[in-house]
Amino acid sequence: MTLKEYFTTTEGTAVLSTADREGNVNSAIYARPHVMDDGRLAFLMRERLSYANISSNPRAAYLFKENGPGYQGKRLILNKVDESDDQELVESLRRTSHGSKKGDDITRVVYFQVTKELPLVGSGE
Predict the structure, then answer these.
(1) pTM
(2) Could you read off the pLDDT of 51-101 as tens digits, one per residue?
(3) Which residue of 12, 70, 77, 110 has the fewest CB atoms within a 10 Å radius of its CB?
(4) Domains in the chain: boundaries
(5) Strand extents, DSSP E, 31-93
């Protein structure tokens, strides 16, 4: 199953972990990524701590735990490759507002390349 199929059909809870250039770590709950046709992952990011971190250190980790019993899911090692502040693109990718109103915070589309994919539990070997 491709990542696009996986994230289109699988529900769960996810955490994006980032660090600033000094190595100070942050983790935040994040939605499922948008998987672009070229394989990059796109996340909508407000200009908060995770975005500040990824702006100074392009590496991140994304942990996705599938809904249901047990520990099924994925861990993805990511590298930021691009971003866009095109608000029409942001709105086209927005799945839900989670209580925010259009224009709240500046939101960007941040693109990542997956450098490694691992199962949620274990080494994947």
Answers:
(1) 0.88
(2) 999 999 999 999 999 999 999 999 999 999 999 998 888 888 886 655 455
(3) 70
(4) 3-119
(5) 34-35, 41-46, 59-66, 73-84
